[in-house]
Amino acid sequence: MARWEPGAPERLQKAALELFATRGYEQTTATEIAQSVGLTERTFFRHFSDKREVLFYGQDVFVQAFLDGVDTAPSGASPIEIVACALQSAASLFPDERRPHSRQRQSVIEQNPALQERESHKLASLATTVADALRARGVDELAATLAAESGATVFGIAFTQWIREGEQRSLADISAHVLRELLTLTGKATASRSIVTTPTRN
Amino acid sequence: MARWEPGAPERLQKAALELFATRGYEQTTATEIAQSVGLTERTFFRHFSDKREVLFYGQDVFVQAFLDGVDTAPSGASPIEIVACALQSAASLFPDERRPHSRQRQSVIEQNPALQERESHKLASLATTVADALRARGVDELAATLAAESGATVFGIAFTQWIREGEQRSLADISAHVLRELLTLTGKATASRSIVTTPTRN
Hints:
Chains A, B: This is TetR/AcrR family transcriptional regulator. By secondary structure, chain A is an all-alpha fold.
């Protein structure tokens, strides 16, 4: 049995990010990542199911922040209001000083389709988990799914904006702005009778 | 140079679906898929970049259906109205007789995380492409992204419902219903001042 390595996942993630950014994702092996911080390949795979997963360490904390936001929403809050609380709670995980790290990580992900796939799926899984939490609060099946998916969409768009060069606003502010835009956009559409009253178009 | 095989991608997809459903995705190789319809591994990889991709043959036609819907939306339509047209156009690709095939395909995807990742990413790519088309029609950057992402969300939810056992409604009807639910949900939230007027909560 290998002994427990304190902080190993964090060290491995940091090393992986550096190596992926300098050498490229495809050109870096899990063994090289592990060795660069004095650990073994075996330790790497005890913490991560595959090489991609090292960039997603902390996903459980991220999802939990959304769930904490759902829990703290006032009783009687509408599904979208609950999601607004979840978004603000999640944003608190990304203080301004984390922006350079997030930017570097995203840049690596955007250069590799396999990492993009993993990321798309993580965002989809987040929406599924948040939808379950909404249903547990008594929100209808369909409304829960739509509200949670919209929350994941808003987070994704806001995060992309937050890491843009020159962006100064906090992730919380950007998230709130994007959510308001979504409500404005759909509010306009609701005012149009053609979508709301016509069941089918073809 | 291998000669051109008419209908090879369709035959490979059909064979792959059968083999994945009966033997399992992991237990089936690209060579076995190809051989089961009298083709070679080389032919398989001329059509598909990897084993996963065989289940996503036709994605370009699917994306084009959304784009056709965007094109045919009346001038002056709001972003969500354009997306409603795109959804109805996409739904026309899935007549009732295609339901058993779609159901079998989805069942295979749901049993394999690698296929789920590819699917999540395809849906994300669809949203990116539709957002570009909305921008080309003059829709604002953020509104285009939000409307396109919402369209992809509505499609995903409607499709999941469409392939449920016992579901009788057409995909067009379900899509219209899910979109109306989204508008109702966000319409209610717009009526609540707390989200629309408070820029930040923490």
